[in-house]
Design goal:
By secondary structure, this protein is an alpha/beta fold. The protein has two domains: 3-215, Spore Coat Polysaccharide Biosynthesis Protein SpsA, Chain A, CATH 3.90.550.10; 218-332, no CATH class. It has eleven helices and nine strands. α2 (49-59) links the parallel β2 (36-43) and β3.
């Protein structure tokens, strides 16, 4: 294929997912969109994942591109995939998920019809218990967005239910910050100012699975504080690019909410008291430095959760730590 023939490049980081990889790759092989390339990045897998992806490359050389690298993390793998991509649009798939066969054809058709910079679809959330597939409550409800600023408001930041116009990514220079977890948060938020047209397809094209031992669901993960570093990087990006004032209210809402809700919940579960206190102090410092007046933000005007956020301070913080950690444990089934 030449560059003009590739409509969508699908980037799939792979690391030790041999149990789920065949199902994922079969769902990509069977995509109804023919003008597609599937870029598999083997991020130093130590199981049979590398062997499996080579088998697919040998059987379907016209569809698969395989990149081998030492283990450097998902962000680096996705960035390597972006460097090799040639499609008009870019999509991402997690190697333990499954996508519907019509996903990329339907999303590309909508993108081409509307000349959209960004297309998002719905997803299903599942877990296998004793071989039985159970449907879980979605942790984010996706809705259609008409204006760019709406992309900040309660978004699904994961890249696996979206396609982006490749030209937007290349011209903006936005990449996944490497050596961090939660890197998809920065990628999503940093691209927002460059997106002018967006579309939503109300179809569950992605089967996303809860994995108890994943990075995101580990109860005692000392790296949970990296979300605070990601938030700092986002703020500095917006300041450097001249977007901070333009999107201040939306950025304030997003950053404060993610720090005081999911991030605070993860930090609150840490048994290491010293590390927990370091993260909590850092979180307060970021809020004090950039978002001191967040309680006046119009987006925090309604709802019980926003009432909690507006009442958060150094005094209530210690009580809320137990409450939010408990809620987060229930939400993440820990």
């Amino acid at each position: 294929m030449n560059n003009q023939e590739i409509k969508v490049s699908v980037i799939v980081p792979v690391y030790n997912t041999e149990k789920y990889l065949n199902a994922c790759l079969d769902s990509l092989v069977n995509q109804t969109l023919k003008e597609i390339e599937i870029i598999l990045i083997n991020d130093g897998s130590t199981d049979n994942s590398g062997k499996i992806i080579r088998q697919y490359e040998n059987e379907y050389p016209q569809k698969f591109i395989v990149i081998e690298q030492e283990n450097q993390g998902q962000a680096c793998a996705r960035n390597r995939g972006l460097e090799r991509s040639r499609g008009i649009y870019i999509g991402f798939v997690d190697s333990d998920d499954i996508v519907e066969p019509q996903m990329f054809e339907k999303m590309y058709e909508r993108a081409a019809l509307k000349n959209a910079d960004f297309v998002e679809c719905d997803y299903g959330y599942y877990q296998f218990n004793d071989g039985v597939k159970n449907t879980l409550q979605k942790y984010v409800k996706i809705t259609a967005k008409e204006k760019t600023y709406q992309m900040f408001l309660d978004p699904m930041i994961a890249p696996w239910n979206k396609i982006y116009k490749r030209e937007i990514i290349i011209k903006s220079g936005v990449v996944f910050p490497e050596r961090y977890i939660y890197e998809d948060t920065a990628f999503y938020i940093d691209l927002i100012p460059y997106i002018k047209t967006m579309e939503y397809i109300d179809e569950e094209y992605v089967q996303h699975y809860f994995r108890p031992n994943s990075t995101q669901t580990k109860k005692q993960n000392p790296r949970v504080g990296e979300m605070l570093s990601i938030v700092e990087q986002i703020i500095l990006f917006y300041k450097k690019r001249g977007f901070f004032d333009q999107y201040f209210e939306e950025l304030e809402y997003f950053c404060v909410k993610i720090m005081l809700c999911s991030s605070f919940g993860r930090i609150g579960m840490l048994e290491d008291k010293e590390l927990r206190q370091i993260y909590m102090k850092k979180m307060l410092k970021i809020i004090e430095m950039y978002f001191k007046g967040f309680r006046k933000n119009k987006y925090f005007s309604r709802g019980i959760r926003n009432l909690y956020i507006k009442s958060f301070n150094k005094v209530t913080m210690h009580f809320y730590r137990y409450l939010i950690a408990f809620i987060y444990k229930r939400k993440m089934k820990l």
